[in-house]
Amino acid sequence: MSDTTLPPDRRQAFSDRVRRAATNGRLTAGLILLPPALILFTLFVILPLGESGLYAFYDWNGYGAPQDFVGLRNFEQMFGHSVFSIAVWNTVKIILISLLIQMPLALLLALLIYRKTPTNAVFRLIFFVPYIMAEVAAGLIWSFVFDGNYGVTASIATTLGIERFFVLADRELAFYAVMVVIVWKYFGFHMMIYIAALQGVPDDQIEAAQIEGASRPQIVRHVQVPHIKPAIAVSAFFAIIGALQVFDVIIPLTNGGPSNQTHTIVTYLYEFGLTRLRIGYGSAVGVVLFIVAVLVAVFYQRIFMKKGTA
């Protein structure tokens, strides 16, 4: 017998029991599942962050307990170091290249292949493969491409009969090569975000615009792009946060060289903190990076994400 055949008072009592049982079930599940998650989060996130903030005020090599308290000296050295300035500027350039080149390229390709056809599925796979490839593998592949002795650039120089050139050894060209690799590596991720959003645009609105005589660029500008603004906002957020964390591609590609010209903030932390056993100094760099990332995330979500979802 269903609860619709019960008298009103018994039906209400039955509904209350069901609601209480569901609430108790969620509470029980929370009590069972939440403590392990909190323990893991505390051990592997909260405690390392706290220790990093503590070590930033010590001159410590990672062995034994930190004892040489130096106050803000690590931060003073960091902000006064010319290589750190280069690393910050390179990180800013990666953010700009991601927003101004990588994202528009991803959107253009998404507009071309977002419809569900077998041919488009093949192209999506081709364009998405660089993203699923390991960063270290991508860096090694492109280091071979740019190799002036045996790589693709060497073959091109030989074919054209010109002197061989070494892109990754050139102080002016090396970081441009790094940015090419970053665009190639991550545009597929943003493309898939846009494809998913474009597939949710109502077809009747596109057909109505076509009936009204709208051109393809006008449909993109006035129909499709306004519908996918939330996806663009999310994509830009990932691009900015990802640019702040670029590391794995650069290490096998240039290792920060030549002459420290291709360092980002994270590779700078690795090179001048970890590899030189200056754990306190590296912790100071990590603290600055963490604060910047948190500020970017908070302000971006409060300003742009709300606008994008409005």
TrEMBL record:
Superkingdom in the source lineage = Bacteria
Q: Which CDD domains does the protein's record reference? A: TM_PBP2
* InterPro entries assigned: MetI-like, MetI-like_sf, UgpAE/MalFG_permease
Any GO BP annotation: transmembrane transport
Transmembrane segments annotated in the record for this chain: 27-50, 94-114, 121-145, 173-197, 231-251, 279-300
Start and end residues of each ABC transmembrane type-1 domain? 88-300
Q: Which GO terms describe its cellular component?
A: plasma membrane
* Main subcellular location: membrane
The record's subcellular location field reads: Cell membrane
Pfam families for the chain: BPD_transp_1
Report keywords, A-Z: Cell membrane, Membrane, Transmembrane, Transmembrane helix, Transport
Which SUPFAM superfamilies does the annotation name?
Answer: MetI-like
Q: How does it sit in the membrane?
A: Multi-pass membrane protein
Q: Which family does it belong to?
A: Belongs to the binding-protein-dependent transport system permease family.
Protein name, per record? L-arabinose transport system permease protein AraP
The organism is: Palleronia abyssalis
Q: Which gene encodes it?
A: araP
